[in-house]
Amino acid sequence: MDFLSFTDLTLFLLLFALFVYVFASVTITSLHKVYLTFHFCMMFWPICQFAIKAVDTPKVQLFYLKLSFIDMCLIAVGWLLFTIFLTGHARFLRKKLSILLFVPAIFVAVCVIVNPNGKFVLPLQGNYIHRTYGPLFWVLITVLIVYIIVSLYLMSRALISDKATRIKTQVKQVFKGITVMTVFVCLDIFLNVVLHLPLPAIPGLTSLGILLSAIFFVIAIHRDKAFDIVKIAHQDIIDTIDHGILVLNDNEVVVEINRTLLPHISFRIGSRFDMANLLSKGQSKSNIHLFLQTYQMHPLKRTQIEIEFPNERYVNIQTAPIRVDSEMVGRVITFQDVSEFYRLIHETNSQNEILHERNQSLIIKQDELSLTNRKLEKMAITDGLTGIYNRRYLTQKLEYEVMNNIKHQIPFSVILLDIDYFKLINDSYGHLVGDQMILSTVAAIRQTLRQTDLLARYGGEEFMIYLPRTSQLQANFLAERVKSTVESNKMIVKDIPHSISITISIGLLTINNFTMESLRSPHSYLNELLESVDKALYKAKEEGRNRIVSVVR
Question: Per the confidence metrics, is the pTM higher than 0.90?
Fold first, then answer.
């Protein structure tokens, strides 16, 4: 082997040194992993080219030759993946269509491995150091050119887009690297394959192009911080925070200022910060001396103070230590402008009395509305004369209760009663006495009812009582008690020499048997029940009044 044969080995060692340098000098992120994989693939080409010349066996030479061109396919895919990540199109790789990126490279790699009938490469002079390429070689070159064109297209689009200047600088650097690599690869193909010069092949052209492009990439990584995502993200976050942020080292020297704070202070990075001098420019409602004592004598403690500066600017200042392994290495001081907050407080205080008076007025009106609403609600469900529930509320209540009783097989009863000969009382004594008689009768009935029973005025002199969870025997007993209590009730009326008493006729309905078909039409079923108890009351009147007619269903 002559001296020139070691060109590829030398370039491999330089590439390996760059690989170790990048690996050892950066914090590895997802983008760094992509690049290192790409760089690792680039190292294979020169070492394989050196190995072809270092061995004498044609089969082994062919193995390294195929391996080098398979590696070139990987480099082409790596170019594209690297470009996709760098230009911010990584989301495309999550789609199923991303598999199409690898199909052409896989196809040509298979063609290289199989080398059907020598259509990719054939040996000259009995070995593969001197070789001739077939049509599949040009298919591979065409595929590589397509990958390069797509990569360059994505980067050119990024350069003319509205992306940040920092990103464009990185893309421009990588663009140069891939362009340089492409030029050297094309030069290698032109001089060593197309021209077929009688002179010996020029070694290391592609390897040199790979090395130069790697140098461009490393410059982008270190100088332009292409992949320093964590640091960039931290800086972007600090610069977008509304609070002013000042970072000091352990000697009270400014090492970082965010954009929010820059327009408002005279400090610059590298200048010494003097907290006492800053506080002397304003006045505080709290104890400045205590704050400074804590700041100076107890630096590991968090502390804060609010200062009023000229022009009615209020600033909340907070300090916190920066620790590494329990040792203080600096401070973070935040400045929050709370002037708007104090302005709102002053405005609020000036409006407090007016708001208080308005609130009192609103409270009074709210109480009045609440009282009115309660009255309206009561009027909607009660009878105006007697104060007991009206027919509308009763039917609504019964519709729910009846369906619930049927659903759970609970017996219940309904009493419908009517004052006997009530018209005669109105005709004899007048309607006012008739109203008093109704009120007296309601009072007497209430005395006989249980807490769970529901009494409602059903019509003029008709009343209905709902008896929940009541069997026929219990209902008959309660009906008899109501009837006797009303009959024994004596009402004294002014200007009438004798007391007045009345009797009532009662229709009683008890439900013991239940059919689930009734649940299909609750309203119709309730009408049937009311009609049944009404017929019972009518029968009681026909049979002479002052009696009870009971119906069981």
Answer: no
